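Researcher: Checking consistency across runs. Here is Translocon Sec61/SecY plug domain-containing protein again:
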Amino acid sequence: GLCYYFSPPESLAHIAHDPVHAVLYIIFMLGSCAFFSKTWIDVSGSSAKDVAKQLKEQQMVMRGHRDNSMIHELNRYIPTAAAFGGLCIGALSVLADFLGAIGSGTGILLAVTIIYQYFEIFVKEQAEMGGMSTLLF
């Protein structure tokens, strides 16, 4: 039923055979990724109000803008950038699914993100330890 259209097509031949399935899958993936990206900025503390507060705490200002107008100005860019980033992630996932990547496109993106976070933690720990980083790099 409905779950069939929300699952990725099995191959490029299936895309040609049932283009409605492919189009609905693309719309679902891109729409849900954009929606969750926009929702995440509110949940994670990255909304315009939170960014304006962080900038104010760091004594950074936008020339010609008061506090309220700075929030309004940031609201013009942050949600759009979040939605566009979500669309890009969704497009990568759809492309990997369509090309038949081992696993799923979402699984590959998740694995790469986790590995990159471990790498960032490793680099941060090496920077804190000081001299040990010269032995490894």
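Researcher: Does this match what you'd expect to see?
Model: One thing to look at in this run: Residues 67-98 form the longest helix (32 residues).
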